[in-house]
DNA sequence: TCCTGTGAAGTTCTTCACAGCC
DNA sequence: GGCTGTGAAGAACTTCACAGGA
């Protein structure tokens, strides 16, 4: 994979969105697509799409656009989706429970293979077919199951402590649903804050100031 | 509220994060706080905090920092959180069900007062204490209950149609959990895409390319 | 003619650095 | 001394515009 430029954070996020659109196109039997058409479907501009795609090579055909299946393969490869990621869910409260059943991501790529929970009454059994372990077993199980991704769904007050435990267990990427934002991690690790309160408060702002 | 500058999208999102930190400080009895301390807690820089706050006035005390409770009140006012928003949840599949019980946002500000669902076997009763209506009643109920915010939790293929219905019903702000991104809406309306697949795929990228 | 790929220009966002005030 | 508020500088991102290939 020729990485001709640094791919920015924003570009990475958009690639994921392009990918979804391309998969839909592929399901509908489409062979090729132009940057303008992708732009229309994802609510962006043709120039933005081309700039983003140009970060990792030139494989469009001038005058004809991009080959849909080739572009899907390329983006999957860039994003590292061409392998399977074992994921740990930490926290089996109400939101953790719902995340364990939510399949918004592709199961063949991201698979929750272990759940960790503090409350001993919940551990030692399965939830939704996934074994539930005490949180103290994090390091042991993560190593055994090759887990490097985590979904953190504990209360905000426990966020820092749990994230630290996850780091110690070798988890290097986390989706943080705790609501606590900006938790510090070392440079080799990544935490993405997913914050529904912030999202809905942003809407409140726009509806108020308009 | 003196709006001295346009507040950018990014600033608005950060305000929400500052607010959460400030509330925690207030609960701990803190009276004042410096931009540097907020920055440390949210993982940002002091200059960024000051720039963001300067958008809507100057109320820090030089040499002393900001008054915590005053800043909370101001940010709540800026974000429009000083009133109650009635919210509609559209889609009562598994993820919709979990969103209806998830209280990641403040209930005194955002209150789900109606659920809408296509499947007639689910309508006409309550779920988690919230009445479930057929989706065709959207306009009628939204007007009756003064609903202008919506949480969309239907399958991606239905996203465009449901968002259009919500717009027609007078809903002007939506959290879009469908996974379909970039749905077009008129300029007076706002859709925020919340995309767990994109978030986790971004992590995959960073762990792969490192 | 159509559409890509890409420098250049334009815009937006962040960081710097310091005057000013407590 | 400590910390805010803010122009100015710098960095990052987006859009423009056009050369060039199919």
Oligomeric organization of the protein chains: homodimer
Gap between N and C termini of chain A, in Å?
46 Å
DSSP E strands of chain A, number: 9
Q: What's the CATH H-level homologous superfamily of the largest domain in chain A?
A: NAD(P)-binding Rossmann-like Domain
Overall domain count of chain A: 2
Percentage of β-strand residues of chain A: 15-25%
CATH class category of the largest domain in chain A: Alpha Beta
* Arithmetic mean pLDDT of chain A: 93
Could you please describe the fold and organization of this structure?
- Two copies of one chain form a homodimer.
- Chain A is α/β, with parallel strands linked by helices and 210 residues long.
- Chain A has two domains: 9-77, Winged helix-like DNA-binding domain superfamily/Winged helix DNA-binding domain (Arc Repressor Mutant, subunit A, Orthogonal Bundle), CATH 1.10.10; 85-198, Rossmann fold (3-Layer(aba) Sandwich), CATH 3.40.50.
- Chain A is built from eight helices and nine strands.
- Chain A has helices at residues 9-27, 35-42, 46-54, 68-79, 94-101, 138-145, 159-168, 196-208; strands spanning 32-33, 66-67, 85-90, 110-117, 126-127, 130-134, 147-152, 173-176, 190-193.
- In chain A, the strands form two sheets. The first copy, chain A, has a seven-stranded mixed beta sheet, with helices on both faces.
- The longest helix of chain A has 19 residues, at 9-27.
- At the A-B interface, helix 1, helix 5, strand 8 and helix 8 of A face helix 1, helix 5, strand 8 and helix 8 of B.
- The first copy, chain A, binds a DNA duplex (22 and 22 nucleotides) through residues 8, 10-11, 34-36, 45-48, 50-51, 53-54, 58, 60-66.
């Amino acid at each position: 994979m020729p990485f001709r430029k640094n791919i920015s954070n924003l570009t990475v996020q958009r690639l994921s969105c392009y990918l979804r659109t391309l998969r839909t196109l592929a399901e509908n039997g489409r062979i090729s697509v132009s940057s303008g058409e992708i732009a229309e479907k994802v609510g962006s501009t043709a120039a933005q799409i081309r700039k983003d795609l140009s970060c990792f090579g030139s494989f469009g055909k001038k005058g004809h656009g991009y080959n849909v299946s080739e572009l899907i393969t390329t983006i999957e490869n860039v994003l590292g989706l061409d392998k399977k990621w074992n994921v740990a869910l930490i926290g089996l409260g109400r939101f953790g429970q719902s995340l364990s059943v939510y399949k918004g991501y592709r199961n063949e790529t991201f698979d929750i293979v272990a759940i960790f929970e503090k409350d001993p009454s919940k551990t030692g059994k399965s939830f939704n077919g996934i074994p539930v372990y005490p949180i103290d077993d994090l390091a042991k199980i993560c190593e055994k199951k090759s887990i490097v991704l985590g979904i953190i769904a504990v209360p905000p007050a426990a966020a820092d402590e749990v994230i630290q435990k996850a780091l110690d267990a070798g988890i290097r990427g986390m989706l943080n649903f705790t609501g606590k934002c900006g938790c510090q991690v070392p440079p080799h690790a990544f935490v993405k804050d997913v914050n529904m309160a912030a999202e809905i408060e942003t809407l409140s702002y726009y509806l108020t100031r308009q």
